[in-house]
Amino acid sequence: MKQPISILPAIALRGTTILPDMIVHFDVSRERSIKAIEAAMLHDQKIFLVTQKDPEVEKPELSELYQVGTVAYIKQVVKLPHDLLRVLVEGIERAELLGLEQEEPFLKAETALFEPDGAQYTKSLKEAMFRSMQELFQRYCMESGKISKDLAAQIMNITELEELISQIAVNVPLTYQNKQKILEAVSLENQYEVLAAILNNEIEVLQIGHDLQRKLKARVDKNQRDYILREQLKLIREELGEENTADTAEGYRQKAEALDAPQEVKDKLNKEIDRFKSMNNAAAESSVLSTYIETLLGLPWNKKSEDSTDLKEAWKILEEGHYGLKDVKERIMEFLAVRKLTSGGKSPILCLVGPPGTGKTSIAKSVAEALHKKYVRICLGGVRDEAEIRGHRKTYVGAMPGRITAALSQAGVNNPLMLLDEIDKTSSDYKGDTSAALLEVLDPEQNNHFNDHYVEVPQDLSEVLFIATANDMDGIPRPLLDRMEVIEISGYTENEKEHIAKDHLIPKQLEVNGIPEGKLKIQTSALRKIITLYTREAGVRGLERKIGQICRKAAREIMENDQKKVTVNSKNLENYLGKARYSYLMANKKDEVGIARGLAWTQVGGDTLQIEVNVMPGKGELVLTGQLGDVMKESAQAGISYIRSVADKYGIAPEFFQENDIHVHIPEGAVPKDGPSAGITMATAMLSAIIGREVRADVAMTGEITLRGHVLPIGGLKEKLLAAKYAKIKQVLVPKDNKPDIQEMDAEILDGLKISFVDNMNEVLHEALA
């Protein structure tokens, strides 16, 4: 328990700590401290003295002060020239700093005195502590020689433990940090332990110093001052186990001579080694130079790994590691073929663009394995500082090379496969534009002289095989995109997901969860149900999580019930994964007026959109609901303008658009929707509602509409066609200009779908309206 709180003027001491029973004077120059002394003198001459943690801080706050200080009595104040005060104080009691009631014009501290130590110490314990403290003090006096014989005798004549500890703490020259430790020890036993530890440490340091002095005296002549200093420095380094600067520099020189690097690099190294050799090891720049030299020595300047040119083995590795991804595999095989024919050549810079979970990152590992290249990965997601790429100038504190240089050092060769992951998620701010820094890295015409700010010597990156990954091409700046060869990886079909799960995901999860082979069987029917009803994604990441969930539950069954084999089928799947999470919006069972089916691209694949239109008496307004974006709203406006332009053809009265409101709604109103590809779908649904003709339920469509009724091409066609297949759509209307995209698709995607190419709205309406 502490005594009641009292408010006292306070002084923050710099580099000194006042203990109870200590009589000491110190000079005061800060205005706040002078006013605190004046306030104390006007009251009861009591002041609270507390030490600040950092002596350099001019106006310390509460957090910058120690929590325990000393209540002192001001015995004398003397004014000195230059607005200085010399104050003589006597420490009375230690107290805890609870807070600062005010900070200006002087510090006022809320303090609480500590209650007297209420612990009961046995007579024998106090006697043991007393004798031990006397012995430590005697040994300290013998080793240090800083305590006069009279003072030592006076302290040794003390008969009370409390007084002995207090007088030793006051009279032994200790650092303010050690005195603060003693001050913060409240109980008698704690004070004894802290002071004993400090004295033991001081004695040990003094003994080591004496040993060093004795060794030096035996080695050198007292009058050779310079020689003594050199030998003393050498001996201290020997005791600490540190190498001599000259020896270290010589080691660097030998490594530099053996380094396989351009002459420019060797010249730079020798120049820096000469500087390092002539520098004092204690200088701050010495460690900076040492780190820089070691960085240059650690880089693989001309060190290469032998690339594989075995096309058959490479194809086998790519086929075993990944199902599908035909474009990527063929591009790698082309690169290998060219490499073999030319015995070299520039490495391509590939950019794999596709939704999450489609295998972009893992394909890079397979490519590295197929080429027998070292593999290093750099994650660029959220990188905002240009120095992360180009490195920091080595003059800065804590400077380091950029991520490209660090990755080369990690690989140990100058021709690794370097994966630049999430290149579309770099950002720029006041520290620089990260994507602009990557231009030099990824430009085949420039990267043979890449300049890292830390290394300061051009590096050749032309041998590096760069593979970048991105989720969205729109996030990559155009100049950067122009330097890369883009390969789009679209979502997997149900059949592809099924193959991937059987060949890769299930064996992997069985191994991860420790399930022996043959103990768990996931039937094909259950696998298809997981793909369609439990995951909605373009990739297979969610599918792998669901398989892992089944494996964990199966492992529990095997261990708890001692089952020999667990079989998961479509009937008992809910026992492992719960109720199905998704259901695709299936094709309507019958043709309806004002309802058309559109196709949309999302980050996790394709989806279908049911666009509903109602016509009602009103004032000629067009109402759009369903959280549509600006582009989608403009498509609806373009669609109604087209319908009004062909109203005569369909027998629509001129006054119809002034006397009726048209309401367009897309369900799932909480989900934001945007893009121009729903233009022909909205126009079809609106015309159907206006003229009362039904839209075919088995038809879906995608395409942008113009005011004149032309149909413009769209993107994400593969994902949209997959969504149509899931929804059991029979016919899909596709812009005529997208015909090359259809021709490049696998037959598996198009199987069961009738693709009709349309060039204008007349063709759309001919196919869509019943």
TrEMBL record:
Q: Which residues form the active site?
A: 677, 720
Report the EC code(s) recorded for this entry.
3.4.21.53
* Lineage, highest ranks first: Bacteria, Bacillati, Bacillota, Clostridia, Lachnospirales
For this UniProt record, the keywords arranged alphabetically read as follows: ATP-binding, Cytoplasm, Hydrolase, Nucleotide-binding, Protease, Serine protease, Stress response
GO cellular component terms?
Answer: cytoplasm
Q: What is this protein called?
A: Lon protease
Could you tell me one molecular function GO term of this UniProt entry? serine-type endopeptidase activity
The function of this protein is: ATP-dependent serine protease that mediates the selective degradation of mutant and abnormal proteins as well as certain short-lived regulatory proteins. Required for cellular homeostasis and for survival from DNA damage and developmental changes induced by stress. Degrades polypeptides processively to yield small peptide fragments that are 5 to 10 amino acids long. Binds to DNA in a double-stranded, site-specific manner.
**Residue ranges constituting the Lon proteolytic domain according to the UniProt record:** 590-770
Organism annotation:
Blautia obeum
What processes does the entry annotate via GO biological process terms?
A: cellular response to heat; protein quality control for misfolded or incompletely synthesized proteins
**Where would you find this protein in the cell?**
Cytoplasm
- Location (main, coarse): cytoplasm
Protein family (similarity comment): Belongs to the peptidase S16 family.
Keyword NADP, does the record have it?
no
User: How would you classify this enzyme at the top EC level?
Assistant: hydrolase
- Could you tell me what reaction this enzyme catalyses? Hydrolysis of proteins in presence of ATP
